[in-house]
Amino acid sequence: MGKKGSHAGEFGFAARYAAALYALAFEEKKLDQVVDEIAALGRLIAESADLRRFIGTPLTDAATAAPVIKSILVEQGFSELVQNFVAVVIRNRRLRDLPLLVTGFAAYVARKRGEIVADVASAHALTDVQRTQLRARLTESGYSNARLIETVDPALLGGMVLKIGPRIYDTSLRSRLQRLNHSLKGAA
To answer: What pTM did the predictor assign?
Structure first.
């Protein structure tokens, strides 16, 4: 799905961050609230090109990023637990990985709850209508309890890539253009 792979919470540092946040939220009896807020943070990142650019800029240092991100989180009403989690991410120089950590946490929570994880990458954030249609199709296909983990990948140009377990359904414009390019090369 992105440059760093899908199911980000299954491997490496993303799994450690997800497990730590999950354990802390569970211990403080705020798990459902934190799950909702991390999902909201993911939507906020997906829907704001400016925020994605700020987060993805390698030149942004922790001293600059921390107050900016904190003010955004406070303004949006995020709990102190989520604010502190993001502050730790920034302090550990992982701000660029925040979208990966958000999707990793969602995948971790889904696995802990026994849900099927459906990674969806699209060129633009999914609308509510698209999300509803996708859920309906997943239900028709036997994945009624699938948890959608959404990421935005502008390189797809259009369409989406859906990954459920080992299965990948790629309807992106990028892959269609690649197939067309390949077929044209074969015809030459």
So the answer is: 0.70
